[in-house]
Amino acid sequence: MLQRFGSYLLDLVFPPRCVNCMRSGQWFCDSCAQRVRPAPSRQVCQRCGIELPGDVEGLGAPCPGCRDALGCVGVAALHEGPLQPAIHALKYDGRLELAPILTRYLRALIAAAPWPAILRRVDGIVPVPLHRDRLLERGYNQAALLATGLTVGSCTPVLESAIERFRATKSQVGLTALERADNVVGKFKANPRLVTGRRLLLVDDVFTTGATMRECAVALRRAGAIAVYGLALARPAKR
What we know:
It contains ten helices and nine strands. By secondary structure, the protein is an alpha/beta fold. A five-stranded mixed β-sheet has the order 3-4-9-8-5. A two-stranded antiparallel ribbon has the order 1-2. A hairpin with a 6-residue loop joins strand 1 (43-44) and strand 2. Helix 4 (98-110) packs across helix 7 (142-150). The longest helix has 13 residues, at 98-110.
C-alpha cells in the first residue's frame, strides 16, 4: 500500500514516462507497444515445454505423456523486448497504470478462435494467487489486475477467493523446470463452494514451464471444477 501511495506522489511531481524507452507522456508508449511480439504460431506442452505439431497461435495442449488437470493454455506475447520491463514495472514497481494497457494483448488473443467458443463455457476467471505475505508486501496481485481487465463488458465474475497459496514459496526466477515444479507442488488450496461444477479460466502474467498454473489447476479440479483453462500475458521466447 505504501508503494502504491509513493507511486501516486511521484506521478504528481514527475509526468509519466515509458517504462521501456523513457519517452514522456505515457507509461508504455505507442512505439514500444507496437514492438511487442505475439507468441509464435506453435503448440507447446504446458508441462514439459516440448513443441507439439500444429499451428494454433498462442495455444498449448498437454503432450501424451503429460496430460493432467490443466486444459488448453493461451499465451498472448513473448516475454522479451519492451514487454519485459513493462511486466516488471507492473509486478514489482507498483505501476498499476500498466495493467489495462497490458490487458489489451490478452483481449486481442481471446478475440481469435478458438477462444470465443471456450470463453462462452467459462463460469469464472481465477487469477493465480500470491501468498498472503507477498500480497501484503506488494499491496496487489498483478494477475488479479489482468483478470479484472478481461471482464470489462462481460458478466463473467473474477473469483479471487477461489484458490489460495496457503504455503509461501520462493521465487521461481532462475529455477529449473524440475525445481519450479517441486517449489509449488501442494502449495495451493481451492474453495469447493466457489468452484464445484464450474469451468474456470486461470490468469497469470508469465507462463514459463507451467508449473504454477498446473498446480492451481490440480487444486481447482480436486475441489470440484469441471474444467480449467489457462491464459497468460507472456512466455519466454526460448523454452
